[in-house]
Specification:
It holds the Pfam family ABC_tran. GO terms for molecular function: ATP binding; ATP hydrolysis activity. It comes from Marinibacterium profundimaris. This is Multidrug ABC transporter ATP-binding protein. By secondary structure, the chain is an alpha/beta fold. It has two domains: 220 residues, P-loop containing nucleotide triphosphate hydrolases (Rossmann fold, 3-Layer(aba) Sandwich); 68 residues, Alpha-Beta Plaits, CATH 3.30.70. 34% of the residues lie in helices and 28% in strands. It has ten helices and 14 strands. The strands form three sheets. Strands 6-7-8-3-9-10 form a six-stranded mixed sheet, with helices on both faces. The longest helix is centred in the C-terminal third of the chain and has 19 residues. The radius of gyration is 25 Å and the shape is elongated. The relative contact order is 0.13.
Length: 316
C-alpha cells in the first residue's frame, strides 16, 4: 500500500517558546484509517492543523500525494478534508449555500447532485434551506462534515468528530467513514472514545508531549502489548494471599474474594495457569468461578502514556 501523507521531522514552536511538536515523523498509507491517540495537550490538533495548512510549521516537511504543503499549498490542500473540533459557521447562511460555497473554495465546479447526495447521507437534505443558527449543535456538526466532504478529498482528517454529539450522529459518522474507506479515502481520526478507534482503525499512532511514541497495526499492537488476566473468584474471601502462592505475582481484589493473575499473550501455552489453579486448591482455597480478560486498546494507551511520563520524571 503506497503512502499518501509523509511527515518528516515536523516541529512547531510558538512565539512564547512553547514547543508543540518535537520532530514528528509519520507516514500514512493510502486508503487506511489511522487513529491518532494522545492525552489533552499532546499535540494532536497542532499536528492536524499543520498538515492542513492552518498552522505553519517551524521546520520539517509534509508531503501529500507528492505535493509539499508549503511550496505547493493549493494542490496539497485540495486533497484534504477537515472536520475540526470547533463549530465555526456563519449563523445567517443556509445549509445548502454553505456546503456549495465550500466546494467552490476548492475550485470545484458546481455539482448539485453531489451536494444532495452528501446532505441526504447526513440527514440534512430536509434542512437544506434552514439558516445555520436554527440548527441544533448535532446538526451543525453534520454541516461541518458535509463541508469537509463536498470537494471530494482523498485524505480526511476527523478531529474529535463525535465529541459531545448524540448516539445517532456517532453511528452515522462511522457509517460514512466505512463508506469512504471503501472508496479509497484515507482517514486520520482523533477521538477520546478509544473504543471507536479500536473498532474501526487499521493502525494506531500514539502521541504525547509533541512526540510520536509508536505507530503500529492495531491488531499487532494488541497482540504484542496486550495483557491477559485470569481472575479466580474465591468462595470465601481471604485477608492475604497465602505464602505458598507468593511466586505467582498475584493481586488480591478488593473484598478479598478475587485473585488476579496477569500473563503475557506471547507466552503461548506456558502461561502457568494450570499450575496456579492446582496450587490455589492445594492452599485450601475453594474456587467459585474463573474468568479471563484481555487488555483493551484503552488499557494499552494508558500504560504507554504512563510509562512515558514515568521516564520523564526519572530523567528530571
Amino acid at each position: 500500500m503506497a503512502d499518501i501523507v509523509t511527515i518528516r521531522d515536523l516541529k512547531k514552536v510558538y512565539a512564547e517558546g512553547f514547543e508543540a511538536l518535537k520532530g514528528v515523523s509519520l507516514t500514512i498509507r493510502e486508503g487506511e484509517i489511522l487513529a491518532l491517540l494522545g492525552p489533552n495537550g499532546a499535540g494532536k490538533t497542532t499536528l492536524i492543523s499543520t498538515v492542513c495548512g492552518i498552522t505553519m510549521p517551524t521546520s520539517g516537511s509534509v508531503i501529500v500525494s507528492g505535493h509539499d504543503i508549503e511550496t505547493d499549498y493549493r494542490a496539497a490542500r485540495s486533497l484534504i478534508g477537515l472536520v475540526p473540533q470547533e463549530i465555526a459557521l456563519e449563523p445567517f447562511e443556509t445549509v445548502i449555500r454553505t456546503v456549495r460555497f465550500s466546494r467552490g473554495l476548492f475550485g470545484r465546479t458546481r455539482d448539485d447532485a453531489l451536494v444532495e447526495k452528501i446532505l441526504t447521507r447526513l440527514s440534512l437534505w430536509d434542512k437544506r434551506d434552514s439558516e445555520l443558527k436554527q440548527l441544533s449543535g448535532g446538526m451543525r456538526r453534520r454541516v461541518l462534515i458535509a463541508k469537509a466532504l463536498v470537494h471530494e478529498p482523498r485524505v480526511l482528517f476527523l478531529d474529535e468528530p463525535t465529541a459531545g454529539v448524540d448516539v445517532e450522529l456517532r453511528r452515522d459518522m462511522w457509517r460514512i467513514v466505512e463508506d469512504m474507506k471503501a472508496e479509497g479515502v484515507t482517514i486520520i481520526l482523533t477521538t477520546h472514545y478509544i473504543e471507536e478507534a479500536e473498532a474501526i482503525a487499521d493502525r494506531v499512532a500514539v502521541i504525547n508531549d509533541g512526540q510520536i511514541l509508536l505507530v503500529e497495526d492495531k491488531a499487532d499492537l494488541m497482540r504484542q502489548m496486550g495483557r491477559k488476566e485470569i481472575i479466580v473468584h474465591l468462595k470465601d474471601p481471604v485477608t492475604a494471599i497465602p505464602d505458598s502462592l507468593s511466586g505467582y505475582d498475584l493481586d488480591l481484589g478488593e473484598g478479598g474474594d478475587r485473585l488476579i493473575y496477569g500473563y503475557d499473550t506471547r507466552s503461548g501455552d506456558r502461561t502457568g495457569i494450570t499450575a496456579l489453579l492446582n496450587d490455589v486448591a492445594a492452599a485450601g482455597l475453594v474456587l467459585r468461578d474463573v474468568e479471563t480478560r484481555q487488555s483493551s486498546l484503552e488499557d494499552i494507551f494508558v500504560d504507554l502514556v504512563a510509562a512515558e511520563e514515568h521516564k520523564k520524571e526519572g530523567a528530571a
